[in-house]
Amino acid sequence: MLFDTHVHLNADQFEEDLDEVVSRAREAGVENMVVVGFDRPTIMRAMELIEQYEWLYASIGWHPVDAIDMKEEDLAWIEELSQHPKVVAIGEMGLDYHWDKSPKDVQKEVFRQQIQLAKKVKLPIVIHNRDATQDIVDILREEGAEEVGGIMHCFSGSPEIAQECVDMNFYISLGGPVTFKNAKKPKEVAKAIPLEKLLIETDCPYLAPHPYRGKRNEPSYVKLVAEQIAELKGISLEEVEKITTENAKKLFNIN
Q1: The domain that contains 192 carries what CATH number?
Q2: Residue 11 is part of which domain span?
Q3: Average pLDDT estimate for 232-254
C-alpha cells in the first residue's frame, strides 16, 4: 500500500472528477493521502474532504507566498481546526523567494508563528521551500522545530542539506521530479538518505512524474515515484511502499 503525503485534492483542477481521481488512487494501491490547505478557501475545502472520505487526512497552514494576507484570527482559526482528529500536521509553511508578493521579513514572521503554533498543538510541520534553503534551516533551528519534526515537502536540495534536515527530526519527501531524467539532486537524495527517513508524495495537481510531466498530476501517480526510488536504491517496490507508508503513519500518528 502507498501513502501520498501531499495532495491538493482541494484544488479547482479536481472539481469536475474528484470521485474518479480518488477511485484511481485506490485502485493503484494508495491507502491514505494528506490533503494540504494553505489559505482560507483551501483549508475549508480540506476540512470538507476529510469528512467525506475516511482515508483522507489534512494538513493546514498558511503558504509563504500569501504570508502578507495572514491575520491573527487566521492563526487562531488554524489552531482551533487543528483539534480535529484527522488534522495531522500544520502547513504547508516556509519561505518562497521566487515570488515577491510577500516581503521576506513578513514570510519569516508568519513562518515562525506557525512553528510556534505546531509546538503548542504538538503536530509535525510541512515545509515549503523555494530558493530559501539556508534561511529555512536557520529558522527551524532557532525555533526548535525538531521538537515536533515534520516533512521537507518536495525536497529539491542537496544530499548534504537533506541530511541536516534529517538530523533535525525531519523526513525528506520526494515527488515527481525524482523521475525526471535531468533531475540530478532528487536522485542523489533518494540514494543517500535512508529509506526510514523518506516519504513519497505527488503534490498533485502539480509536478506530475514522467511520463505525465506537464499534465495534471494525481495521487495514483505516486506509485511512479515509489518505483523510481526502488530502482535508485536497488530494492523492491514492495519495500519502498511498506517503509514509506510506515514512516508516514508514524509521523502523522495514524494507527
Answers
A1: 3.20.20.140
A2: 2-252
A3: 98
